[in-house]
Amino acid sequence: MMKNCVTALQKSAKMLSHSTGPVSVIVKNQAVRSLCSAASKYNFETLKLSTPQPFVVHVELNRPDRLNAFNKRMWIELGQCFSQLHDDPDCRAIVLSGGSAKHFTAGIDLMDMMKLGQQLGEIEDIGRKARLFEGLIKLYQDSISSLERCYKPVIAAVHTACVGAGVDLITAADVRYCTRDAWFQVKEVDIGMAADVGTLQRLPKVIGSQSLARELCLTARKFKSDEAHACGLVSSVFESREEMVKKAIELATQIAGKSPIAVQGTKKNMVYSLDHTNQEGLDQIREMNMTNLQSEDFINAVMAQQSKDEMPVFSKL
């Protein structure tokens, strides 16, 4: 059966070659043509974007003077950024780092919270205060969830402190790296609140231990890179920030070189399967692959594997 499948693919590739020229050349030209740098396409106040490799976008938190603490502008821009990258054909994989700041992030900007307190002080009715909070919390939740909803894989690269909202952020990413001096803290109970934008939902699934997740969230204790690696919060630990970012970009480049239909379909199904039954996950991927297996990506990838040629280059998606 596999032999018949390969034969059919070979015929399809030959037909495409006769009608439009060599497939690999066409695909390569389509893939490279009009590849725009993220720095020229995106202009955010609290984020810095660049394209270190083709189809790889590096998103850096960019509030170094405030230790990358989250203010309202950063919440808004994170949601906008990952929603736009989701649809950007020049992006296939994303690295998220703390940039040049001393820490990955110090968590919520308390100065920004004080401004919110002043705004609340101008409202007397408790129902109207609650309505304001509802809108803000939903905005912040959607901002974090934008990483998970983005079909492009997100690799978080954490150095030194990752506090509060930072844990929310990285648990919505697909892969997490950190430096040896990194430490993490689910800080919210120490400032009189329950974490409300993703950590309580995602951290137990990421580390696979309800006991440890509840200990960390209920005590707000700090935990370091060795424990983060042992429990599965991060998959690799590096001696320096430079080495970590380099390896994160290398991983993103490897992912970006594969079929975008295959990669994005894989992420979509893995995210979906987190809160669905195995059968529901199987049903979804079956419905997706009824279409995706007819893609030129499948033909090109199988032909490359069969002929042992150089890695195929895929057109934009």
Explain the overall architecture.
The chain has 317 residues and is of the alpha/beta class. Helices cover 56% and strands 12% of the residues. It is built from 14 helices and 9 strands. It has a 6-stranded mixed beta sheet with strand order 1-2-3-4-6-9, with helices on both faces. Helix 4 runs parallel beside helix 6 and helix 8 packs across helix 9. The longest helix is centred in the middle third of the chain and has 24 residues.
Give the strand content: 5-15%
State the shape: globular
Quote the distance from N terminus to C terminus: 30 Å
How many beta-strand elements?
9
Oligomer, anyone? Answer: single chain
Overall radius of gyration: 22 Å
Protein name: Enoyl-coa isomerase
Pathway: Lipid metabolism; fatty acid beta-oxidation
Keywords: Fatty acid metabolism, Isomerase, Lipid metabolism
Pfam families: ECH_1
Give the SSE map.
Layout: H1 2-20, H2 23-32, H3 38-41, E1 47-53, E2 56-61, H4 72-87, E3 93-97, H5 110-121, H6 126-149, E4 154-158, E5 161-163, H7 165-171, E6 175-179, E7 183-185, H8 199-207, H9 210-219, E8 223-224, H10 225-231, E9 236-238, H11 241-256, H12 260-274, H13 278-292, H14 296-307
Parallel strand pairs: 2-3, 3-4, 4-6, 5-7, 6-9
Antiparallel strand pairs: 1-2, 7-8
Give a quick set of tags describing it.
single chain; 317 residues; alpha/beta; six-stranded mixed beta sheet; three-stranded mixed beta sheet; 9 strands; 56% helix; disordered N terminus; ClpP/crotonase-like_dom_sf; Enoyl-CoA_hydra/iso; fatty acid metabolism
How is this structure best summarized?
The chain has 317 residues and is an alpha/beta fold.
